[in-house]
Amino acid sequence: MRAPFRLIGGVLVATLLTQITACGSIFYPDRRGQIDGKIDPAIAALDAVGLLFYIIPGLIAFAVDFATGAIYFEPGRTAQVAPEKLKEAIGVDGKVDNHKLQTILETELGRSFPLDDPRLIQHKGSAQQLAMFGLQPAA
Fold it and tell me: Which controlled-vocabulary keywords does the entry list (predicted)?
């Protein structure tokens, strides 16, 4: 009878230790040492899963990630695409083809963007911005 209790105790200790170490510190050790920034929602959600199982380890996971700074996005990471490559996504009528733009962004940045999402907010550019990129405004 002692063996099952030891097995259950070992599994419980292993589970608690994995929750205490915090997800951001495990997945992104290079982010440690940051003071502030934009919070990574994926890491915050994974830390919140710890709250569902055990309150104390979940709170400790959040505390460790905030204290080490591993919950924040890396500072200064930006993604840029040359304007010449983006010209391919603009049609002859001056409108942007979202499908072409999405394929350009996927090939250049290696990430997919949901440009067909109805919640996407599109802003119109000015004639000066178009002229800066060598484009003619269409009325």
Answer: Membrane, Transferase, Transmembrane, Transmembrane helix
Mean confidence (pLDDT) of the chain: 75
Residues 34-42: contacts with CB under 8 Å, at least 24 apart = 34/69, 34/70, 34/72, 34/74, 34/75, 35/69, 36/69, 36/72, 37/69, 37/72, 37/73, 37/74, 37/75, 38/72, 38/73, 39/71, 39/72, 39/73, 40/71, 40/72, 40/73
Q: Which domain holds residue 100?
A: 83-132
User: What's the domain count of the chain?
Assistant: 2
Q: Is 73 part of a structural domain of the chain?
A: no
Q: What is the pLDDT of residue 31?
A: 76
Mean pLDDT of 22-32: 75
Domain identity same for 16 and 64? yes
pTM of the model: 0.42
Three-state DSSP at 20 gives helix
